[in-house]
């Protein structure tokens, strides 16, 4: 056991770490739960040397706290640190507690177990406890404590998400009220009073730059959450960002789609076809190509079908489960659907080609090796152009939809086949999609570049439009003063629609000069 | 060291390029064995083949300022001096150039791009200090193409992650107007054309503000607008003598280049002024046209805020009323909305000939060049069968192939014949 005298060296900052690390907290939690927590309940302020070091600031922190066991902080002067720790204990949501006045002299001890301290918090949420970083001054300590709490809550949020995802994978119905479902991360603490804390913790990428929709839905969900404090399973966490990685998102999308489909069959409220469709539209058009193939022909008719089908979200409680983009209320929809203008795709024909022979035997081919090392071939239906390279790779441009692009690519492959090459059709991939639409009002580009400087680039000396690089989804928009918007850089149709829905409220804000 | 050099003694791959006094040596960091010394080129063994590493692939270029970078830095300083920029700008621009040069894409770029980069760094510095410098000026000084300049500029802004504020229009007006040689009489400038600088500046500023308010500046190059505004300001200060002078002649007098779009900006500005004049009672009776309105520019500018609101107010209000009506009827496709709005506006247009116009950018006021029909809803699945006949139409028959080859050979022969003499 270390000498506790080192605790009382005032204001000695440790050499390295200033913030407690996760593994330290785990240690604390483990020791806390085991109840054998070695207490280093030193006061916040440096004690006069006469006082024994084991004084507990417990009277000031009603929930008591567990200080960091000394053995975890070897070689580090703990002076005014440890006593501050545990200030976050007991689920205090607010900013760090006020600095404690000097505690009354406790009975002398030799660093033995302080049952009093550890008792009420034996089952307390361990992650919330902080060790109390060494302060420069009092304010910093409080701030550090508060930040530590927030840090902990981020961890909670992440673990909630993980739990949610795992629940989906297990097919758990959140709203079904299964009694036995208890999230592992919570550790038995009721979520009620702590949930509002999640709001400051949502990471920045959720707040899409200046898009009001997610925020609005977020707030409405938050209110909903506050109304039902006790019952965890009724908490709707769909507003939390889809931090899942891309492939997980796709998997969970497909899984959730299947879930919803099978649920709607049992519920039989609407035709089973319309529910996935409204799901797709209302939830920002989750874009798996499998969905697209079956529903592509429904998209042009979107504008009318969106509004009535979204009228009653309450009748579809399952709608809010999906963790993807939050459902936008009807009044927020712009009612404008961007038209796809161009699709660029690539395919591998997997055989070496003789470009001279192709140019000789094909009527619709042009080949000028001095200018460009590929054959430029065109077909009339669908009206597209292809660049065919001697390695067997091909680029197909000009189609107006994904299916047309695929059909056109197949036709080019067939032409190459007929010319005598063993062409195959491998790795067809859509590389870029371009869409355009018209918002029908004039946009003040100078105002837009002032408020969205980090995303916009407007150089009237070079180009009359404003180039807006949206982060999520990763799309580039060209915005013109006449209200025409061009969206490009998408790999999926849903990205274009989502980007437009994100930009429309921003543009509406700049309607009048 | 790059590559797979191994120490012959201990076989470790940890070779360090150290120099013993002035001799460069390749030393094994484990056993201290000197592998090579005095080597002028760096080598690495690649499956037994010793190959030289080019300078660009070695680390040499990170350790010293290369000659082209030195030249570039010198040019940055020279450009700042030519433009008579404050000395702090010079240091900032030099820092940007050095920062840019750290990126490999810039280091490996062509000389032309590096020249243009000099201008980009100076431009960014000026923009950040709100010093009005146009790209045209820099391109003229560097003898650079605007396309190359724009490409390099956009690339460097993205690469360095810079926040470049927009060109400050008011400052640009001041500097540009001051460059007009009209403030003193000279052999080329008759006395009646000489004008007071302050008056002209203030009036030009007001006209440019008016253009900004009426959507004539957004999306357009700022300089032609300022040229047109300067011309109108100059004319309106002594209209009796200056109405006969054209825009081209004015620019020649003032020793300033006439940008191409300036004449259309002039027409647009005059159209706006005419609309405003219709709202002034004592000007309505005069039935002004584009020439006579110049005489009254002073009055119009004096009341420009109210006039703009009046001249164009009802247009936007009508549009709003039309929209509200549409919303009351429930959601409808965008086309229906537009039709209703325009129809509601057409009626007052017919009744009152001098009705307020819509305050919109000129590109929205002009009729669309061609109406794009909405694309037909195609039910293509992408997996349909492709008929042989469809593919056959794109292939040449053997006879056609022979004809084509003959024609090509004939063409080649013709070119061969014509070339040698």
TrEMBL record, chain B:
Residues 336-352 have a biased composition (Basic and acidic residues). It comes from Canis lupus familiaris. One of its GO terms (molecular function) is TBP-class protein binding. GO terms for biological process: cellular response to oxidative stress; regulation of transcription by RNA polymerase III; transcription preinitiation complex assembly. This is Transcription factor IIIB 50 kDa subunit. It is found in: Nucleus. It comes from the Eukaryota. Belongs to the TFIIB family. Residues 3-36 form the TFIIB-type domain. One of its GO terms (cellular component) is transcription preinitiation complex. The keyword Zinc applies. The keyword Transcription regulation applies. General activator of RNA polymerase III transcription. Factor exclusively required for RNA polymerase III transcription of genes with promoter elements upstream of the initiation sites. Contributes to the regulation of gene expression; functions as activator in the absence of oxidative stress. Down-regulates expression of target genes in response to oxidative stress. Overexpression protects cells against apoptosis in response to oxidative stress. Component of TFIIIB complexes. The TFIIIB complex has two activities, alpha and beta. The TFIIIB-alpha activity complex is composed of TBP, BDP1, and a complex containing both BRF2 and at least four stably associated proteins; this complex inhibits the transcription by pol III via its phosphorylation by CK2; YY1 facilitates the TFIIIB-alpha complex formation. Interacts with TBP; this interaction promotes recruitment of BRF2 to TATA box-containing promoters. Residues 321-387 are annotated as: Disordered. Keywords: Activator, Metal-binding, Nucleus, Repeat, Transcription, Transcription regulation, Zinc, Zinc-finger. Transmembrane segments: none annotated.
């Amino acid at each position: 056991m270390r000498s506790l005298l080192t605790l009382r060296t005032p204001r000695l900052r440790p050499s390295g770490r200033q913030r407690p690390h996760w593994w330290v907290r785990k240690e604390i939690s483990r020791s806390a739960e085991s109840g054998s927590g070695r207490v280093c309940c030193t006061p916040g302020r440096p004690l006069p040397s006469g006082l024994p070091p084991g004084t507990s600031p417990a009277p000031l922190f009603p929930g008591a706290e567990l200080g960091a066991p000394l053995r975890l902080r070897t070689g580090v002067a703990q002076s005014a640190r440890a006593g501050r720790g545990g200030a976050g204990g007991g689920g205090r949501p607010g900013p760090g507690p006020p600095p404690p006045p000097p505690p009354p002299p406790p009975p002398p001890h030799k660093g033995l177990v302080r049952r009093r301290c550890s008792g009420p918090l034996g089952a307390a949420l361990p992650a919330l406890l902080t060790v109390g970083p060494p302060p420069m001054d009092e304010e910093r300590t409080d701030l550090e404590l508060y930040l530590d709490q927030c840090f902990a809550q981020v961890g909670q949020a992440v673990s909630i998400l993980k739990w949610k995802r795992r629940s989906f994978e297990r097919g758990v119905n959140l709203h079904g009220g299964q009694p036995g479902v208890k999230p592992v991360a919570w550790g038995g603490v009721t979520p009620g009073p702590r949930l509002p804390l999640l709001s400051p913790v949502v990471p920045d990428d959720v707040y899409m730059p200046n898009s009001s929709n997610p925020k609005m839905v977020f707030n409405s969900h938050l209110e909903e959450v506050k109304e039902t404090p006790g019952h965890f399973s009724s908490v709707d966490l769909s507003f939390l960002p889809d931090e899942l990685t891309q492939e997980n998102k796709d998997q969970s999308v497909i899984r959730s789609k299947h879930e919803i489909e099978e649920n709607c069959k049992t519920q039989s409220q609407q035709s089973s076809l319309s529910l996935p469709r409204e799901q797709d539209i209302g939830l920002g058009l989750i874009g798996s190509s499998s969905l697209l193939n079956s529903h592509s022909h429904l998209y042009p008719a979107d504008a009318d079908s969106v509004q009535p089908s979204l009228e009653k979200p309450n009748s579809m409680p399952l709608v809010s489960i999906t963790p993807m983009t939050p459902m936008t209320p009807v009044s927020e929809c712009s009612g404008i659907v961007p038209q796809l203008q161009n699709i660029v795709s690539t395919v591998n024909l997997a055989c070496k080609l003789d470009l001279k022979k192709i140019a000789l035997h094909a009527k619709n081919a042009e080949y000028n090796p001095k200018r460009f090392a590929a054959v430029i071939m065109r077909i009339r239906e669908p009206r597209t152009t292809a660049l065919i390279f001697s390695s067997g790779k091909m680029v197909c441009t000009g189609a107006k939809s994904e299916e047309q692009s695929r059909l056109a690519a197949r036709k080019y492959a067939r032409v190459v086949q007929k010319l005598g090459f063993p062409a195959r059709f491998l790795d067809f991939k859509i590389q870029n999609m371009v869409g355009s639409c018209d918002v029908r009002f004039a946009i003040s580009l100078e105002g837009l570049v002032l408020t969205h400087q980090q995303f916009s680039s407007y150089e009237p000396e070079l180009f009359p439009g404003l180039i807006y690089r949206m982060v999520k989804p990763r799309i580039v928009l060209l915005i013109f003063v006449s209200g025409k918007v061009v969206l490009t850089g998408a790999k999926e149709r849903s990205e274009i629609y989502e980007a437009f829905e994100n930009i429309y409220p921003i543009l509406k804000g700049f309607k009048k000069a | 060291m790059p590559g797979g050099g191994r120490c012959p003694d201990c076989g470790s791959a940890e070779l360090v390029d150290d120099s013993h006094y002035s001799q460069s040596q390749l030393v094994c960091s484990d056993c201290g064995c000197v592998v090579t010394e005095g080597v002028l080129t760096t080598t690495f063994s690649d499956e037994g083949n010793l190959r030289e590493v080019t300078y660009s692939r070695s680390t040499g270029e990170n350790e010293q300022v290369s000659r082209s970078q030195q030249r570039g830095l010198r040019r940055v300083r020279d450009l700042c001096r030519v433009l008579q920029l404050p000395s702090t700008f010079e240091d900032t621009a030099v820092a940007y150039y050095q920062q840019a040069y750290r990126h490999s894409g810039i280091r490996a770029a062509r000389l032309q791009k590096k020249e243009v980069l000099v201008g980009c760094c100076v431009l960014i510095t000026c923009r950040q200090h709100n010093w009005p410098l146009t790209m045209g000026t820099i391109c003229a000084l560097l003898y650079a193409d605007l396309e190359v300049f724009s490409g390099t500029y956009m690339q460097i802004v993205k690469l360095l992650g810079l926040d470049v504020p927009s060109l400050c229009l008011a400052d640009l007006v001041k500097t540009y107007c001051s460059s007009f040689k009209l403030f003193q009489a000279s052999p080329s400038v008759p006395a009646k054309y000489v004008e007071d600088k302050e008056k002209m500046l203030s009036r030009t500023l007001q006209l440019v503000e008016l253009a900004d308010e009426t959507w004539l500046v957004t999306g357009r190059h700022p300089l032609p607008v300022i040229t047109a505004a300067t011309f109108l300001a100059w004319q309106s200060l002594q209209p009796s003598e200056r109405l006969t002078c054209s825009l081209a002649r004015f620019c020649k007098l003032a020793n300033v280049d006439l940008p191409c779009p300036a004449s259309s900006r002039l027409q647009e500005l005059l159209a706006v002024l005419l609309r405003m004049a219709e709202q002034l009672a004592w000007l309505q009776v005069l039935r002004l046209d584009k020439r006579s309105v110049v005489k009254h520019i002073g009055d119009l500018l004096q009341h420009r805020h109210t006039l703009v609101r009046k001249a164009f107010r009802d247009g936007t209000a009508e549009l709003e009323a039309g929209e509200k009506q549409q919303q009351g009827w429930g959601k409808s496709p965008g086309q229906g909305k537009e039709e209703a709005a325009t129809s509601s506006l057409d009626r007052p247009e017919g009744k009152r000939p001098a009705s307020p116009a819509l305050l919109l950018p000129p590109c929205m006021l002009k009729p669309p060049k061609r109406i794009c029909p909405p694309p037909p809803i195609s039910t293509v699945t992408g997996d349909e069968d492709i008929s042989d006949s469809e593919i056959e139409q794109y292939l040449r028959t053997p006879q056609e192939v022979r004809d084509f080859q003959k024609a090509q050979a004939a063409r080649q022969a013709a070119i061969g014949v014509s070339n040698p003499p």
